What does this fold into?
Amino acid sequence: MTRAICIRCGEVKHGCWTPCRACGHAPHGETELADSLCLSDQMMDDREDMDAVAEYIRDNRIVPVFPAGFRHALAAVRKAKASLTRRGLLPADPDTFVSALTRREIP
Ligand SMILES: [Zn+2]
It folds into this structure.
């Protein structure tokens, strides 16, 4: 099972696109899905890095964005667009969805 971090509260969870049991946040829309994929063990192989990211989110309530990883994750999300839309993870009308989360690029 994928070990992931909730992009809203920093809690560790199982599955990058599952709802968080701590805060209830369920990633929605391609940016949140890509951010969630980035902050999971599918893209981060170092447990210490994941712990540091979790702490950063808990302390700042900001999603750290690593540009190269994000581009890669976004491409994966867009490739799976049809099935993700069917599963309700992507909005049927992308123009109407606005994420409430604050993001910051980490160079
Ligand atoms: Zn959470």
